[in-house]
Amino acid sequence: MIEQFKEAVNNGLSTPHKNLPSKYFYDKKGDALFVKIMGLPEYYLTRAEHDIFKNQTSNIITSLKLEKDTYFELIELGAGNGTKTKELLKLLSKEGYNFDYLPVDISQNALDNLENNLKTELPFVSVKTKQGDYFEVLESLRHSKHPKVILFLGSNIGNMNDAIASIFMQNLSANLNLGDKLFLGVDLIKSEDIVLPAYNDSQGVTAAFNLNLLDRINKELDADFNRNNFIHTPTYNEKEGIAKSYITSTINQDVHIKAINKTFSFIKNEKIHLEISRKYNDEILNNIITNTQFNIKNKLSDSNNYFANYILEI
Ligand code: AVI
């Protein structure tokens, strides 16, 4: 784990266009800051998807063509705290559907918390947590011939560029069988005045979330980044529908990373690219699934039409 982190930091800071992968945002502090982001007034994504789960729950069940007497596995990739999914679990359980809920996460701790919470809140739902990498878990489930519904929510696919997203969808598709479904949450392309503030909130939580990566490098790789010498400078290109997070060096400076045994120089105004948050429409999703067995079957949107959950079927 630490070796991979070291390599990613070294590679990312050794290229002319410096970058650091956003997957490393999520240490303990980063997890807590992300929970805070999800509750920010400017961060509409979580609320919009929750709106769909809360107000269109029966619609979700109908669109997924679930049948009461056919057992299925409901598999959630990157389950988090399951707030949105609970709306669906509640109705499925109340109406007597025959299913197991399989939340998949890399963090056993996140899964334990979710399992305990569900035990008290929804005791009649059968929960089978699966710790591990998404594809390892899917591979292990592949041979069970039970129908599967995969949940991949929260616009998590948006943190992949289009090439990676398309490989991800090909892998996913290769691990599913005819009739299996994917319920995919994506943020929709919309104007800059709505998207940019979501990544540049007035309380500075997103800035802290991004700059926390420098603290993580300091802590885990014994570096001497001074986060006060960097500022959070996100962008959004409305035409392509891509938000990008950068941090910008405010001075000429050198940073030494002991674990890599290397000093990295930053000139004033030099940017480090951290994250991409891709926004979608039908055309972009269709391009991404070109080389897969998936077909788009349906789409549910929130009342503001900010966010969509697509139903894809193999
Ligand atoms: C997890 N992911 C979908 C978030 C997003 O909107 O791209 C991560 C995030 N970055 C800044 N704010 C939220």
TrEMBL record:
<dbReference type="InterPro" id="IPR017804">
    <property type="entry name" value="MeTrfase_EgtD-like"/>
</dbReference>
<keyword id="KW-0808">Transferase</keyword>
<protein>
    <submittedName>
        <fullName>L-histidine N(Alpha)-methyltransferase</fullName>
    </submittedName>
</protein>
<feature type="domain" description="Histidine-specific methyltransferase SAM-dependent">
    <location>
        <begin position="5"/>
        <end position="313"/>
    </location>
</feature>
<dbReference type="InterPro" id="IPR029063">
    <property type="entry name" value="SAM-dependent_MTases_sf"/>
</dbReference>
<keyword id="KW-0489">Methyltransferase</keyword>
<dbReference type="InterPro" id="IPR019257">
    <property type="entry name" value="MeTrfase_dom"/>
</dbReference>
<dbReference type="Pfam" id="PF10017">
    <property type="entry name" value="Methyltransf_33"/>
</dbReference>
<dbReference type="InterPro" id="IPR051128">
    <property type="entry name" value="EgtD_Methyltrsf_superfamily"/>
</dbReference>
